[in-house]
Amino acid sequence: MDVTDTTAPHRQDGPDWWRQAAVYQIYPRSFADSDGDGLGDIRGITSRLPYLAELGVDAVWLSPFYPSALADGGYDVADYRDVDPRLGTLDDFDEMVAEAHRFGIKVIIDIVPNHTSNDHEWFQAALRAEPGSPERDRYIFRQGRGENGELPPADWESAFGGPAWSRLPDGWWYMHLFAPEQPDLNWENPEVRADFRKTLRFWSDRGVDGYRIDVANALMKDLDEPLRDMGPRSYDEQMAEIEDGTHPFWDRDEVHEIYREWREVFNEYDPPRVGIAEAWVKRHRLVLYARPEGLGQAFNFEYLKTGWDARELRSVIDESLRTAQDAGASATWVLSNHDVIRHASRFALPEGADTDEWLLSGGTRPEADAERGLRRARAATMLELALPGSAYMYQGEELGLPEVASLTEDELQDPVWERSSHTRKGRDGCRVPLPWTRTGPSFGFGTEDGESPWLPQPAYFGELSAEAQEGEEDSTLELYREALRLRHKLVGTDESLTWLSDEETASDGVLHFVRPDGWHCLTNFGTETRPLPEGEVLLSSGPLNGEGLPGETTVWLRDGAADG
To answer: Does the keyword section mention Hydrolase (predicted)?
Structure first.
């Protein structure tokens, strides 16, 4: 592909560009460091846009780049309408957006509406203000229980572990569903709502095409006194119990009033801005976030959580497509992101392995089969890219990067480690800075004479780098490039599929469907070679042996009747 071609004719445009887009998530601090300070930055992203154009993505999604003390990797935002000075300036951001658009790449950014940083000017004003003041009403302050108010106002648990309340020197408590440095906003306050609408317009006016909404299901809380105790519940247990929109702080029905207001802002622009919800909710609740009058799309985490199992995956695919259709949205598919173990490592572990224990062991127990994990990851990616809807990819997965489980305790940055009393290692292993070159002090992430990356890279990253895989026919990078090139050619406006494998075939470990225009996708989840129907082989995730479809492999075919 000629990356100087700015017309990008293969990419969808118009108001529905997002419906079947290939979106590439960038974790800015770990993508590319232009000034050698050890942190990735906005200019680093701009410098690598030719690479992303050649990869063939339709859009990039940037995790937070705002001013932040990094108490939670940038998700503790001190100013929603600026760039962290360590990452650049607003001018750098504007240049990046303009350059992305020149390559035909849309730009999606993270909005973090549930909480601010404790450094945010609003929270600092709240700390200086008296109880009951307008400044404190922007957040959630309560008096404690017990004889002297020494107990939290309720027994609510933080998603990172420990109480969801912290006490101030004046005896009052404030709520934080995540780290204490992330105080929750009071979304019943009109000033909070108005300020976020202002933020959405600020970035939309700068050319941002869409927004990924962090913890979209947590904004509204039941704050009627007395606050309801929930009993001892971990975050995962809380998520499993939420059903009907009445939980005190997760997935309350009232949250959708906010997103209807946001939709009005999105529709002020031509084309309308796009929203996608990060909402860890049950499937029947997900449709509420993805409606056209709401955000318009929602992440499909059921797909991410499903293991290497053909029958379970087919069920999730069917239900996901139905949910999206019910919402009037397109389905979304994701295998890795900044919060989960990279799928090349998940698929390398024995079935049912405790991933927390694996991380705590430094990636040694149980033993991971890295070769099998990568083989499955490549097959899973081709399956994902063949499905109707939007595919969200995480930086580095196109290189086949594994989770860096070997990070030592003194290298960890994620607050989950401390908040969980050292029982969960956290998410740093998927956030290790990318390798761009075979050699060098940071494998091309930073400058030759720059500081070490903020998280250390393992020695084997050099042979997984973009440089090492460039032009190598069987490399994972070239597989992604060819898959995305073909996807742009094959995908039309028809968001349907037809299963050609029945339940019996799925029980044998094979999924086979056809998309419009005779584009077939077959994935063999087993280990034995299975029959391969006649047709022109467009691409396979691994070598074909001439006898059929090998195990743990996906192939794309075009039948003889299809028009090329």
So the answer is: yes
Exactly one of 184, 214, 384, 403 is catalytic; name it. Answer: 214
**271-292 b/e with 16+ CB inside 10 Å = b?**
bbbbbbbbbbbeeebbbbbbbe
DSSP string, 430-450: G-SPPP-SSSSTTTTSS-TTS
Q: Is 268 a catalytic residue?
A: yes
Rounded to the nearest 10 degrees, how much is the dihedral formed by the CA atoms of 13, 19, 23, 27? 110
Whole-number percent of the chain with pLDDT over 90: 90
The strand pair at 390-394 and 332-334 is best described as: parallel
Least confident of 123-137, 228-242, 444-458: 228-242
DSSP string, 142-163: EE-BSTTS-B-SS-PBPTTSSB
Q: Is the pLDDT at 88 greater than 90, yes or no? A: yes
Q: Which helix (H) or strand (E) holds 211?
A: strand 210-213
- Helix, coil or strand: residue 165: strand
At 507, is the pLDDT very low, low, confident or very high (cuts 50, 70, 90)? low
Give the CA-trace dihedral at 198, 199, 203, 208, to 10 degrees: -110
Confirm if 103 and 49 have CB atoms less than 8 A apart: yes
- How far apart are alpha carbons 538 and 188 in whole angstroms? 54
Rounded to 5 degrees, what angle do the CA atoms 206, 209, 212 make?
110
Phi first, then psi, for residue 63 (nearest 5°) are -65, 170
Structure-block tokens of residue 519 = 């584009």
Active site (annotated) includes residue 119: no
Q: Which two tokens mark 465?
A: 């780098």
Contacts of 408 (CB under 8 A, 6+ apart): 362
- The pTM is what? 0.96
How confident is residue 503, by pLDDT bands cut at 50, 70 and 90?
A: low
Name the E strands within 76-176.
Answer: 106-111, 141-143, 165-167, 172-175
Name the active-site residue from 222, 237, 268, 547. 268
Q: Are 465 and 443 spatial neighbours (Cβ–Cβ below 8 Å)?
A: yes
Tell whether the model's pLDDT for residue 330 goes beyond 50.
Answer: yes
485 neighbors 56 (Cβ within 8 angstroms): yes
pLDDT beyond 70 at 505: no
